[in-house]
Design brief:
This protein has 416 residues and is of the alpha/beta class. The chain has ten helices and 21 strands. β15 and β16 form a beta hairpin.
Length: 416
């Protein structure tokens, strides 16, 4: 049996075929190609990427009964290989928080990535994986004493700090730890800024150097974070140059710099206007020419490695008209893995139904008024039980979901 239907991607209609053997194929877009330019080519890349994600997910829309996140093993491998190829000097450490599924961790380990953790549970995930714990970096700038003890007992060597108090805390538990200093950098151009909560100011850097010297701690690395889904390449330039200056300052104070951690923030392609990993890498690689060869350079990609490998399938449970506003209610929402959408994070939504697109306010199924996902474009004839695809949700979806109000969290299904 073969089922045919159409979906809309970026306002363009696409025919989809699914068959009983769970194979799915998509026809080419029946539209005129945009003029050849970087902007047009970027948009076409993003459109094709959405089509591909829907293609490997579509079989799981048949006989639908609850939200499902479909993750492609091949995509995971390709993303890791592409990151490594783009920046040969940079050792990737997957940010486990992005998606801690054991099979995903195992695939990245096979592809040669190391890992970055932020909690006892993530440390335990590394132990179960059997990874070399000396290559695991503890990048949460504020750690509980219990978690530091757990990390130390399990051979973790490297710890992030951004306050003098954290240096004192680690010194009391693991005096032979190697510390890397998280500095503040611009988060301009990122969809999810991280500045403010973490990152030492220039004055804070001086205080950390002073306490590290006083306690005879090994302050031998620098890190920064440009913000999640960052499209401003200059943030990495600023961070690398600032780190280089701090290396000189550390050396002048008797420390021996060993590590530069470029953090995360490498963006996915939602509109096609985001810089590719190759474009970011070209700038980073150039800046790294000024970093001494003995410095180990690493990064903490999370969303980039796993995000485009996952496509969420959800369903409309109801529609409503409230005065002039039109609402679509989905079977998952803020509590079901879509927290970022409530904060205007970029999103691609692809309806199984065709029709002229209009603006709808999207909401989740719970009775909580914060379970609202903002305004998005979907067909004006949207109805209950319509299937909606959301590409690029392999990161921070299932890991941020809860069963609040009794609604099921998205189940993860791995496909080749």
């Amino acid at each position: 049996m073969v089922c045919k239907y159409k979906v809309t991607v970026f306002g363009l209609k696409i025919a989809v075929k699914t068959s009983a053997n769970n194979r799915c194929a998509m026809t080419d877009l029946a539209v005129n190609r945009l003029p050849t330019s970087a902007q047009a080519e970027g948009r076409l890349v993003a459109e094709q990427d959405a089509r591909d994600q829907i293609a490997f997910s579509a079989a799981h829309a048949e006989n639908y009964h609850e939200p499902v996140l479909v993750v492609s093993r091949q995509r995971l491998r390709i993303n890791a290989q592409r990151f490594i190829a783009a920046m040969p000097r940079v050792r990737p450490h997957f940010a486990v928080k992005a998606n801690p599924d054991p099979e995903i961790l195992g695939i990245f380990q096979q592809e040669g990535t190391c890992f970055e953790v932020a909690s006892i549970a993530e440390i335990d995930a590394m132990l179960k994986l059997g990874t070399n714990m000396k290559t695991v970096f503890y990048s949460n700038p504020i750690k509980s004493p219990a978690s530091i003890k757990h990390a130390a007992a399990n051979d973790i060597v490297w710890y992030c700090v951004d306050t003098p108090q954290e240096v004192e805390k680690i010194a009391a538990i693991k005096p032979d730890a190697k510390l890397y200093l998280r500095i503040e950098v611009s988060n301009e151009g990122s969809s999810w800024p991280l500045a403010g909560k973490f990152g030492a100011s220039p004055q804070g850097v001086e205080a950390i150097i002073e306490i590290s010297e006083k306690l005879d701690m090994q302050l031998c690395g620098v890190t920064f974070h440009v913000g999640s889904q960052c499209t401003n390449i200059n943030n990495w330039v600023e961070g690398i140059r600032a780190a280089n200056n701090i290396f000189t300052h550390l050396s002048e104070n008797g420390f021996s710099p060993e590590l530069l951690n470029l953090g995360g923030g490498y963006p996915l392609q939602f509109t096609g206007q985001e810089p590719s990993i190759e474009a970011i890498a070209a700038v980073i690689n150039h800046e790294l020419d000024a970093v001494p060869e003995h410095i180990q350079v690493m990064a903490e990609p999370g969303r980039y490695l796993v995000g485009s490998a996952g496509c969420l399938i959800t369903q409309v449970v109801g529609i409503a008209t409230r005065d002039s506003a039109r609402w679509v209610y989905l079977d998952t929402g803020v509590y079901g893995g879509l927290m970022e959408l409530s904060q205007s994070f970029p999103a691609t939504m692809v309806s199984q139904r065709t029709g002229e697109a209009g603006v709808w306010t999207l909401a989740g199924p719970t009775c909580d008024s914060i379970d609202v996902l903002g305004d998005h474009r979907l067909p004006v004839n949207t109805q209950a039980e319509d299937i909606i695809y959301m590409p690029n949700l392999g990161a921070y979806c299932t890991t941020c979901a809860s069963d609040f109000n009794g609604f099921p969290t998205p189940k993860m299904q791995m496909v080749d």
